[in-house]
């Protein structure tokens, strides 16, 4: 099941990325295909069609982050509890909890016995997944808050229904990709937890629950320097994206002003037209580093993020230059000094 899920996720990321890469190739024979892909990707100010056929309001963006918060929270809580109870990093390496020991009459939530150690590499893999999901949670919660309180979407702003479905796919598949190598064990663990709760009942389950916040957090603190470098890069992009979103949100004080656009200035807008996209790339680059860089699924997720955002940023940059005669000539589309 786990191998099948990983293969399915990798196939999905490749299938989602390839059309964008093909549409981005500078060959005249691909112009029609480029227009089709661009039609799916256009939204908001860039979508200059009066037709509402096969489109949804752009404020449906909120749906992405509702799904993302609920799904990421579920994965984070279950994976963290599995890691805390079954593969902690701060215990005797020759001891580990087993599912069997928990159903042999022991009164504690975790029973320990001498046994061959769980491989330390696997323990760290699980806790890296916890850390990745924790960072993802920080990202999607902030994005949900921004879609509700920061962005003032125009009543005429639309996006293609296909783009809407891709967004739902992304925020379902992305959190899952961050923990897919451990998800089968987490799933079995969660089923056992539910079964125990049903058998013992709420009162007995709460009495058995022994929880130590210090132990809960300390395993995360034992992760390597690479994870903390990745986290620093993640928050560097996270902070700049929040600033750029505040700038964009401040440009439209009244959502009824459908056709009034101004040139954004400040922060990374000084160098690129879509700094919020650039920051998103930095955020996911941080996640790749946190993962250790050895997980192909996360690399494929990153590849989709980069190709999708670069493709969208190119069209946004073209729109700005056509819309404003005084648009800063030194600004590039998304990659400083390159593109």
From TrEMBL:
Location (main, coarse): membrane
Membrane topology label: Multi-pass membrane protein
Pathway participation: Protein modification; protein glycosylation
Gene3D superfamilies, per the entry: 1.20.120.1630
Compartments, as annotated in UniProt: Endomembrane system
Superkingdom to which the source organism belongs: Eukaryota
InterPro entries membership: 3-oxo-5_a-steroid_4-DH_C, Dfg10/SRD5A3
Pfam family, any one: Steroid_dh
Transmembrane residue ranges: 12-41, 62-83, 161-184, 216-239, 296-314
GO function terms (MF aspect): 3-oxo-5-alpha-steroid 4-dehydrogenase activity
GO aspect biological process, one term: polyprenol catabolic process
Residues in 3-oxo-5-alpha-steroid 4-dehydrogenase C-terminal domain copies: 225-339
One CC-aspect GO term: endoplasmic reticulum
Keywords per UniProt: Membrane, Transmembrane, Transmembrane helix
Protein name: 3-oxo-5-alpha-steroid 4-dehydrogenase C-terminal domain-containing protein
Species: Rubus argutus
């Amino acid at each position: 099941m786990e191998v099948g899920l990983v293969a399915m996720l990798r196939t999905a990321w490749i299938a989602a990325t390839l059309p964008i890469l093909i549409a981005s190739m500078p060959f005249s024979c691909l112009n029609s295909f480029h227009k089709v892909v661009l039609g799916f990707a256009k939204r908001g100010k860039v979508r200059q069609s009066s037709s509402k056929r096969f489109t949804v309001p752009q404020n449906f963006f909120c749906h992405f982050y509702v799904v993302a918060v609920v799904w990421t929270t579920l994965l984070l809580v279950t994976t963290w509890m599995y890691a805390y109870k079954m593969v902690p990093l701060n215990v005797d390496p020759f001891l580990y909890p087993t599912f069997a020991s928990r159903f042999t009459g022991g009164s504690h939530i975790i029973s320990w016995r001498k046994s061959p150690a769980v491989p330390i590499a696997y323990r760290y893999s699980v806790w890296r997944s916890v850390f990745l999901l924790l960072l993802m949670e920080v990202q999607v919660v902030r994005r949900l808050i921004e879609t509700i309180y920061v962005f003032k979407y125009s009543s005429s702003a639309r996006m293609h229904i296909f783009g809407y479905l891709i967004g739902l796919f992304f925020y379902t598949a992305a959190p899952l990709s961050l923990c897919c190598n451990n998800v089968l064990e987490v799933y079995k663990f969660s089923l056992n937890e539910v079964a125990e709760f049903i058998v013992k009942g709420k009162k007995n389950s709460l009495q058995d629950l022994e929880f130590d916040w210090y132990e809960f957090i300390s395993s995360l603190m034992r992760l390597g320097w690479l994870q903390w470098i990745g986290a620093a890069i993640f928050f560097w992009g996270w902070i700049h994206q929040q600033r750029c979103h505040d700038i964009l949100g401040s440009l439209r004080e009244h959502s009824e002003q459908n056709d009034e656009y101004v040139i954004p200035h400040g922060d990374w807008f000084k160098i690129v037209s879509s700094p919020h996209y650039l920051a998103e790339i930095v955020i996911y680059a941080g996640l790749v580093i946190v993962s250790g860089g050895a997980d192909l699924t996360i690399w494929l997720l990153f590849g989709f993020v980069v190709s999708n955002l670069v493709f969208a940023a190119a069209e946004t940059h073209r729109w700005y230059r056509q819309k404003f005669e005084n648009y800063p000539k030194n600004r590039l589309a998304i990659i400083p000094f390159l593109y």
